[in-house]
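Let us work through a complete example step by step.
Step 1: write down the sequence.
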Amino acid sequence: MNENQVEIYIRSSPLGDVGIHWRNISKPEQPVEEPVVLKQRIINRDDGQKVTINSLIKDTKPSLILARYGNKVLLQLTGLDATEARSQEMGRRISESVLWVVDDSPEAESQLKKLAACALLSFCEKESTFLTIIRSSIDFDGLNGFKVDAEKIEQLYSNVDKHFNPLLSEVSSSDISPSVWSTPETIDIQSPEFKVLVKQISQTSLSNLSKTEEPVVVVAQFKKEDNRQQLVYKGNVWKPEKKIPVPADSKRKVQVPPPPDPLPPKKNRLAVPLIILLIAILAIIYVNYQFPATPTPKPKPTPKSTPTPTPTPTPTPTPTPTPTPTPTPTPTPTPTTTPTPTPTPTPTP
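Step 2: predict the structure and record it as tokens.
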């Protein structure tokens, strides 16, 4: 397989305030770049949420993830201790991670499974050759960065048999079991079962889990229990998305539309008369207030027909004003003046 198809990422801490971050060391400039495969949410939780594979581990503890999904196969090692010199310069423990991502193929899967076996056996020995190569290849680069000897990390992938064969020479191939991916267990690393498990991981195909394109995510994490190192092996933790079961009664209601249909019409039957009544009341109020002139003349003609006889005697009040002018002519001195001129014309004939 062409080594150029392998992408390698390192996660570490610089001296400055930038903080821990990923770098793609497969590129010459080793840019800050978070692996795309780690952003994909493929793990289905019981609550229906989807999470990334990194949510399954604590990156500060020695852990391993071997996975295949999205036409990629990958191996991630986390919780690796940096060199003592770098930790002292930083003033605290530095936890580092390494990620190999390869296009899915039988050869790539075989190489990464061997790397996983080397990592599991090397976690037991702090000064193992495998971990020493990783530690020595990472160093500070100024305050806000770090640099990696990419060639050393690439050689771990290409020369994995050199590190792998001596470690597993004690385990026979007759112990291989396809059920290794589906059998979680907690094993003491000093027990013979531990090396048997490691050998099974290195030689059992991931394709035995499923004939479909379903993801495979194998998780293992180390822990200390009563001063003993143990491996908590979870196997393949990926599972299909859980579908919420629908009760049988609800299924029948969905299949037969008549039962839910009568409920809305009952409401409509009650609502329609109320709406009609409300509209009628509003219409009456509107008419009374909008056209007040038309109803008022109708009651006026009816009282006019009855009082018509009563207004006819109205001439009776007229004689009452006639006596009032009569007192004014009582001063009759005016007629006395008028007779005096009249006798003068008579003597002329």
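Step 3: interpret the result. The radius of gyration is 54 Å.
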